[in-house]
Amino acid sequence: MALFSVKMRSSALGSHISGAERIVEEREVPDVCAAMGTRALAHGKGKPDSITVTVTAIDGEVAHIPALPIREAHCADPAEARETVIDALAPLTPHAAEAWELLTGVRDMRGAILFHATTGARLEPDHARGVRVTSMDAATATGERPETHSGKTRVTDALVLASKVAHHPAMLAEVCFSDDPDYTTGYVASREMGYLRVPNMKPVGSEMGGRLFVVDTDDPADLIDYLEHTPVLVGEAK
Ligand code: AMP
């Protein structure tokens, strides 16, 4: 069955306001375009003066992968969150503490840091921007689509992204926390540990936020191509 990628981006006076992406069946395309337009117009960051919706047929098969199972850590404050994340990364890299310092020191990146597990070096070509993961969605059959779970959109979008990311063999782990000052729960994820929600990664009101991928490759070109371009549908956890 042919699938379509539907992407939306909106801006005002040339600066980005919001973006969204779905991978859907042909019959869903009109409704999804309408829903994206509505969402763009209602965005909290302000009224866009430009909304672009792009619909592209996807060539060939789309990979279906399972969602990572969700677990929950108990962290009372950012110090405990730091310990939880470093403990999770320690078996994968001798530079776990440096990864934490790097992640909590960056500002306003649009994408993720690629952190070389063996050396602790940064591998992403553009350090200011990072690598952006796109071309993914929740599988229709799972009932996990963000629009069916009002109020849970953030976890679902993040889980879809984390599941796609963890699936690549060169990916060892991901750590993320939002730059939204009201949202302090982050996560650390990998194929082995699943998606571990980490509360209190930062103090309420802080505008810190970022994403970091711990990777095991000297040449990240294939990995970056997978993250940016390979379409993936994420189904229920196994
Ligand atoms: P958010 O959870 O959307 O607040 O994003 C937290 C951080 O993750 C942002 O500051 C970005 O650095 C990064 N990020 C957001 N979206 C993506 C994406 N699609 N791919 C890679 N990194 C992202």
TrEMBL record:
Any one Gene Ontology BP term: biotin biosynthetic process
NCBIfam families, per database record: PRK01322.1
HAMAP family: BioW
Any one Pfam family match given in the protein's UniProt record, by short name: BioW
Domain of life: Bacteria
Entry protein name: 6-carboxyhexanoate--CoA ligase
Organism: Corynebacterium haemomassiliense
Keyword Transcription recorded: no
Pathway given in the UniProt record: Metabolic intermediate metabolism; pimeloyl-CoA biosynthesis; pimeloyl-CoA from pimelate: step 1/1
InterPro entries linked to this entry: BioW (IPR005499)
Keywords annotated in UniProt: ATP-binding, Biotin biosynthesis, Ligase, Magnesium, Nucleotide-binding
Family: Belongs to the BioW family.
Catalytic reactions on record: heptanedioate + ATP + CoA = 6-carboxyhexanoyl-CoA + AMP + diphosphate
Enzyme Commission numbers on file: 6.2.1.14
A GO molecular function held by the record: magnesium ion binding
Statement: the UniProt record of this protein carries the keyword Transcription regulation: no
Cofactors, names only: Mg(2+)
Subunit-level organization: Homodimer.
